[in-house]
Amino acid sequence: MIRRWGYVGITAVLAVVVAIWAVPELGRDTVTFVTIGQTGPDGGPPLPSLSPDLLIYPGTAQILLLAVGVGLLVQIYSTAYLGHHPRYRSYALVIVLFLIAMIAVVGTTNLWVLLVGWEVMGLCSYLLIGHEWESPVARAGAAKAFLVTRIADLGLVMAIIVIGETYGTYDIVGAQVAQSEQPRHATLIGLLVLVAVVGKSAQFPLHTWLPDAMPGPTPITALIHAATMVAAGVYLAARLFQLYADSQVVLTAMAVVAAITMLMGALFAWVQTDLKRALAWSTVSQLALMLAAVAVGDPEAGTDHLLAHGVFKALLFLGCGCVMLAVGSSALSSMGGLRRRMPVTFWTMTAGFAALAGLVPTAGFFTKDSVLHAIERATDGDRGLAAGTAWVLLVVALVTTFVTAAYATRLWVLTFFGAGHGAGPHGTLGQDVREAPLAMAGPLVVLAVATFALSVGQPLHLGTGLLSTVIAVAGVAAVLVAARRGSTLAWAPRPLAAELWLDRPFSRWILALGTGASRVVVELDREVVDVYPRGGESLAATISRGLGLAQSRNVQRYATVLAVGVVMLVVIGVVVS
After folding, report:
1. Domain limits at 263?
2. Burial class (CB in 10 A: 0-12, 13-18, 19+), 169
3. Which of 466, 491, 516 is the last residue of a domain?
4. How far apart are CA 247 and CA 114, in angstroms?
5. Is 152 a member of any domain?
6. Confidence grade of residue 299 (pLDDT, cut at 50, 70, 90)
């Protein structure tokens, strides 16, 4: 136990250092420290450098505090949830590395340092998702997450190169200063950034890796979905927004991706029979809502929702872990009737589900309201996005609000109400189900308090706030009425239950294409490339056999051949002369 808490102490020290650095910046209106990269020889871009070039401002400070705060709670939670595991030491240390990588991404202005942190997060996610590597499902989920995000990360690499070549600096602030003076290549930079964001934040069409990452330990899903991995994608889109804000092509593409993903993720979350997978699809949908705020020119609204979402989604995933510990499964069919047996988990997760549904007075309501208000303002066509596109995005966001409230209520009902028809590790659900240990329940309470505390000081937009509240309440009421009438809440049309078969390109077609391509390469290597070494081998063998005929090891034969040769030479000499 002492060793387990030692890793908590390491994370706590990291959190304190970040807090000392970040907290003083929360109340400031201006940036107090800026580093602008130097130009290279002849005015060209500088050579790549890993100079830290740290820069922090209020938005950055909030995300840093979210990352280390959730990371610390995850470490505390893990002492009880996973402390018995023989590989706990590597697990805990990778979490620390994960947090350091996130700090590098958020706290630097050097694009190459950002890239290093970005890639280290990808490596850490691979290791943590595949922590239970004995399971084929865990290995497959880790490999899929790693490959999909690595392919998309090529977009970030190319974007960094283009930024350096265009503005003569690899410093974010320096590039933004140069862009404000003479915008160039905004569409190319923006599209490359969007590719990276789509992969990292699991947006359509590279969205399928995130739900398949669920075999990882539940505390890790909380960390990845709330404060680090997927949050980095939206943060990058907001951080580099100024470099592509003038491109309507990029903003339109981003809006289309966001619209498709937010509604698709919400519908997929509704039909899930597994609580963890439903929450994963919820993350996909909520990230799209944040991306929509960036697309309409209000990245601050997107990062505000990112902060609130990080808190209440960490709460829901950690609460899911408590429920899984009690019933032995994340399947909704194994749950029900937990309201009285697990009161702390029930009330804290209720706060989390309310924030997910966007209900007052949670932080989720206020930040979602800000995003909807930003989209509504963009319908005038003056924010870089065509008015028609903004209207479509607004309608989709409102429909998503209804579906989100409905599936959040469905998950809440199926988890905590009813007679409890599942079976846990100790038999029927009523025999040995109890509240989670303090190390697990304590972080839930902290996050539940934060879910309400973050709403303090948030602006309220009466128009969109009232409309979104009515829509959310309608979604909640529809599910509660259906449940009261005896519905199983199992509405799942086959296309939605199969998630529109969108994973087939990754799980079948690309795999088959890769297998076919590898066979072609093997055949070409064997039948074309290997012809030359095989031909040389055959020629050498033939010559060797010919020489072998002359090497009979018979002295009399050697003398006979020599004599015959001499006679033939004499005859030839006589004839010629």
Report:
1. 247-491
2. buried
3. 491
4. 24
5. yes
6. very high
Please indicate, yes or no, whether residues 329 and 365 belong to a single structural domain of this protein: yes
Of the candidates 428, 463, 491, which is a domain's last residue?
491
Whether 47 is in a domain gets the answer yes
119 and 238 assigned to the same domain: yes
pTM over 0.90: no
- Dist. CA 572–CA 564, nearest whole Å: 12
Range 374-381, long-range pairs (CB < 8 A, 24+ positions):
374/293, 374/296, 374/297, 374/298, 374/301, 375/292, 375/293, 375/296, 376/463, 376/464, 377/296, 377/298, 378/296, 378/297
SS3 content of the chain, % helix, strand, coil (to 5): 75, 0, 25
Residue 139 lies in a domain: yes
Do 83 and 50 share a structural domain?
yes
Closest to 215 (Cα-Cα) out of 137, 144, 291: 137
CA geometry: angle 215, 218, 220, nearest 5 deg = 90
Q: Is 411 helix (H, G, I), strand (E, B) or coil?
A: helix
- Domain match, 258 and 351 both: yes
Between residues 321 and 46, which one has the greater pLDDT?
A: 321
Same domain, 297 and 328: yes
Alpha helix segments (H runs only) across 485-530: 494-497, 504, 510-524
Report the sign of the C-alpha dihedral through residues 382, 383, 386, 388, in that order. negative
Residue 310 domain flag: yes
H or E element at residue 424: strand 423-424
Q: Which residues pair with 46 in a beta bridge?
A: none
Q: DSSP of 175-212, one letter per residue?
A: HHHHHHHS--SHHHHHHHHHHHHHHHTT-TTS-TTTGG
Contacts of 534 (CB under 8 A, 6+ apart): none
DSSP of 434-468, one letter per residue?
A: -PPPHHHHHHHHHHHHHHHHTTTT----HHHHHHH
Q: What is the DSSP track for 92-119?
A: HHHHHHHHHHHHHHHHB-BHHHHHHHHH
Indicate whether 485 and 548 sit together in one domain: no
- Tens-digit pLDDT profile for residues 428-457: 445 578 888 999 999 999 999 999 999 988
108 pairs with which residues across the strands? 54
Residue 345 structure tokens: 């988990």
**Angle at which helices 462-484 and 363-378 pack, to 10 degrees?**
120
* 264 neighbors 407 (Cβ within 8 angstroms): no
Considering the domain architecture, whether residues 339 and 394 belong to the same structural domain is answered as yes
**How many structural domains comprise the chain?**
3
What are the tens digits of pLDDT across the range 518-576?
677 776 767 667 767 777 777 777 777 776 666 666 777 777 777 888 888 888 888 87
Distance CA 319, CA 219 (A): 10
The CA-atom distances, in angstroms, between 505 and each of 104, 264, 292, 515 are 34, 17, 26, 13
- Would you call 428 helix, strand, or coil by DSSP? strand
> Measuring CA to CA, how many Å separate 432 from each of 84, 185, 342, 425?
20, 63, 12, 9
| Maximum pairwise Cα distance, the chain | 124
Which residue's entry shows tokens 């006979």? 560
Q: Based on the domain organization, do 219 and 335 belong to the same domain?
A: no
